Amino acid sequence: MTNRVLITGLGCVSGLGRGVGVNWERVRGGDGAIRPLEPPAPEGIAAWFDDDKAHEAVGQSLQRSALHRSALLGNVDPERLRRLGKLDRLSSFALEAGLEAVTHAGLLAHPALVQRTAILLGCGSGGNGTIETAYERLFAAGQSRVHPQTIPSSMIAAPAAQLSMLLGVHGPVLTLSGACASSAQALGEAMHMIRAGRADVVIAGGAEACLTRGSLTGWQSLGVLAPDTCRPFSRDRRGMVLGEGAAVLVLESERHAQARGARVLGELAGYGVSSDATHMTAPDVEGIASAIRAAHEDAGIGIDTPALVSAHGTGTALNDPAEAAAMHRVYGPALAHHRVIATKSAHGHMIGATGAIEFLLGLVALSEGIAPPVLNHLGPDPDCDLPLVLAAQEFAPDVLVSNSFAFGGLNAVLVGRRA
Amino acid sequence: MTNDDILALIAQETGLPIERLQPDATLATLDISSIDLVSMLFELEDRYGIEIQPEELTREMTLRQLFDRIGVPLAS
């Protein structure tokens, strides 16, 4: 008997807000989070997370974070929190989403967390805010010392390690970095950990906090950021828009979930991964297509089975037509059975967290039987001819396909199945 | 710089609730880790220019003694 990998908990935080409920409601309702940044943040637009300190937090760090205003923290032993040290915004997001997912799964303080549970998080970069604050002191302000917790707070492994301390997880705690595919890779590899019997439960997903002055300026210099908004697959699209946040899912072996009577939200049924090995930033149609094919094969789900396809859909000139061409190459006429959504138009490109939040929202869409709209669409682009969902519509297939493609030519595609 | 400023700084750097920061509590009974201690000293120097070397602090030191060393003796 194969050990199916079930999904039993969801958690997320993004520019759309805190928690799966508000994120889904806003995505379904076409209420996107992309808006101008506010001073002292640099000029620009982004889907930034709004709390009472959000505009100050952009470009700063090492403050007691948004996490400390989370209602979920009432469930956590305060002594555990103390051990985490200073939290970069990156960690706050990961902990918030992780806590929500584990609570949702009914696993908070559950004995299963101690052994046979793993954590696998994807992050594109580490704690940008912490690093930039330290560099600003050294290089701009001419000071000779930086905060003693600069290194532990900014390391890319910090969010996963801190989540293990918060939850009391003693199994493998891993961080995976694959740029914009990081959290899709994390979910896929987590699925394999369970299939291989290395863990019964994996808390998997990703986080990113890249709306800092240095990081944002780097993205601006790359010339891929839109000045207006994110318009996936649209004519006159002008680029991507950055977001921030985290998404975490609880994956569980079928045996384990059944034994404890867990509520099942869906299944992570397939994972296809490929590397273009061609160019750092330009996508490759065959690389993308081979990852989509591999994910279907891994799941044992034919390409003609109707699916909700959550596209990578960044809204850049190069990504969207390459992704559309890859879908045509894989699906051919069967593409007409599918519907394509692109939720970056609502929550922005969350880099290391984006694959996880897109899979998560796609899974909720499957269970609700509603495909959420692609926002900001101005009209068709003949190079992106796809069955796009432009207004929320009833669509209730059994299958979700979630695409993630990253700089470095790293492609990761997840296939989910409705519960 | 007041007692309250320093209490808030210690609470922030150690993650301890302010109500636990009683004058006769020692660094040992508060279970303040070495990295939290170093962070606290960093912030004291950064914000108020007060230089204290980590080796000046012992585990047996009370908060009252620490406040004396900082130069803002606790009122009570």
Structure description:
The complex is a heterodimer of chains A (419) and B (76). By secondary structure, chain A is an alpha/beta fold. In chain A, 33% of the residues lie in helices and 20% in strands. Chain A folds into 2 domains: 5-266, Thiolase/Chalcone synthase (Peroxisomal Thiolase, Chain A, domain 1, 3-Layer(aba) Sandwich), CATH 3.40.47.10; 268-418, Thiolase/Chalcone synthase (Peroxisomal Thiolase, Chain A, domain 1), CATH 3.40.47. Chain A has 14 helices and 15 strands. Chain B has a single domain (3-70), classed as ACP-like (Non-ribosomal Peptide Synthetase Peptidyl Carrier Protein, Chain A, Orthogonal Bundle), CATH 1.10.1200.10. In chain B, 46% of the residues lie in helices and 0% in strands. Chain B contains 3 helices and no strands. Chain B has helices spanning 3-14, 34-48, 63-70. Classes of the chains: A alpha/beta (419), B mainly alpha (76). The A-B interface holds A 64, 78, 81-82, 84-86, 145, 147-149, 152 and B 12, 14-17, 35-36, 38-39, 42.
Q: What is the CATH domain class of chain B?
A: Mainly Alpha
Biggest sheet descriptor of chain B: none
Number of helices of chain A: 14
Strand content of chain B: under 5%
- Report the principal-axis shape of chain A: globular
* Class based on secondary structure composition and strand pairing of chain B: mainly alpha
What's the helix-strand series of chain A? Answer: EEHEEHHHEHHHEHEHEHEHEHEHHEEEE
Computed structural class of chain A: alpha/beta
Number of strands of chain B: 0
What are the key terms here?
heterodimer, A: 419 residues, alpha/beta, Peroxisomal Thiolase, Chain A, domain 1, 11-stranded mixed sheet, two-stranded antiparallel sheet, 14 helices, B: 76 residues, mainly alpha, Non-ribosomal Peptide Synthetase Peptidyl Carrier Protein, Chain A
